[in-house]
Amino acid sequence: MREYSIAAIPGDGIGSEVIAAGLEVLRALAAADGGFGLRIEHFPWSSAYYQEHGHYIPPDGLARLKAFDAIFFGAVGAREVPDHVSLWGLRLPIAQGFDQYANVRPARVLPGVKSPLADGKDIDWVIIRENSEGEYAGNGGRAHRGLPIEVGTETAVFTRAGVERIHRFAFNLARGRPRRHLTLVTKSNAQRFGMVMWDEIFYEVARDFPDVSTDRELVDAVTTRMVLKPATLDVVVATNLHADILSDLAAALSGSLGIAPTANLNPERSFPSMFEPIHGSAFDITGKGIANPIATFWTAAMMLEHLGEPAASARLMKAIESVTAARVFTPDLGGSATTADVTRAVLAALGRMA
Ligand code: IPM
Ligand code: MG
């Protein structure tokens, strides 16, 4: 039997609620499949853990994580810790330390879900976010703190190697989709160095993918295209910050942030990849049992695909879609179901398929 080791890091807020739901569904899938098993280990790293221990990840933490096949991550962010501290304490050290440079964010309106757009059914996108450098390179500083002459810098860093590999990844992914279309998003009219280099390298890489059609949009203009002409987009490749913003818009246009999944991939598989719902810790609803677990289920399906279990992944997606079609919705989608209700419904749908 194939066995996969999964490091579960529920983290903060609703992270533990949705990861628990996700693991329940994953265990049921493995049991019904019979062909693969999961060995799950929990890591308690969170903002509460940080307040107690002074760090999110212990000194040997990354070395321990490295042995796993995948990381199943909930959320990080808490009222008690500044956001930039929690982000740089937990999520970024893993994503950057494990060179998970390709962040994949699919967006689609699931059956039964209502998009705010009239033609929301046309949304079928994958946003590829550069996940290792750019605006998140951590390159900056502050001087003259507190004085009237205080200065703060935040310099985006783009390397040829970093840009080329994300473009190559995006072209390969676009090649595997029916429409084979890739849109390059930058801001190379106003930013004439790193962004112009992004554009140039894109067209260099494009020569190796004559079967993928391309076009190009500025990041401000692509927001209007997402809203007004959703059918014209397929795969989008953009920088760390641009794609961060675009993927929230994509999630809202798909009906809710509560359904949007993401994969932080190290495509070379030198390190484990990390799978997480996009939504974050949502402390306004933490502990109420109403967090939407669909984003985490979809995330689990992406993880199964990555692990090499495409059949189980497809079964899970089908179960998710049958539950959204039946409108078993948590409050973010306008319903009154709880996390447990949606989880039970997905488990029942999987049971019917078995
Ligand atoms: C995301 C999130 C994070 C990011 C936050 C929590 C720092 O918005 O994964 O999209 O900006 O990377
Ligand atoms: Mg974001």
Explain what this protein looks like in three dimensions.
The chain has about 350 residues and is of the alpha/beta class. It folds into two domains: about 1-105 and about 260-354, 3-Layer(aba) Sandwich (Isopropylmalate Dehydrogenase); about 115-255, Isopropylmalate Dehydrogenase (3-Layer(aba) Sandwich). It is built from eleven helices and twelve strands. Strands 2-1-3-12-11-4-5-10-8-9 form a ten-stranded mixed beta sheet, sandwiched between helices. Strands 6-7 form a two-stranded antiparallel ribbon. Helix 6 links the parallel strand 8 and strand 9 (about 215-220). The structure holds 3-isopropylmalic acid (IPM) and magnesium ion. 3-isopropylmalic acid binds near residues 87, 244, 278 and 280.
What is the averaged pLDDT score? 97
Count of β-strands = 12
**Could you please say which CATH topology of the largest domain applies here?**
Isopropylmalate Dehydrogenase
| H-E string | EHEHHEHEEEEHEHEHEHEEHHH
Total domains, how many? 2
CATH superfamily of the largest domain: Isopropylmalate Dehydrogenase
Contiguous helical run count:
11
Cα distance spanning the termini: 19 Å
Write down the CATH class of the largest domain: Alpha Beta
What is the CATH architecture descriptor of the largest domain?
Answer: 3-Layer(aba) Sandwich
Structural key phrases:
single chain; 354 residues; alpha/beta; Isopropylmalate Dehydrogenase; ten-stranded mixed sheet; 41% helix; globular; binds magnesium ion; EC 1.1.1.83; oxidoreductase
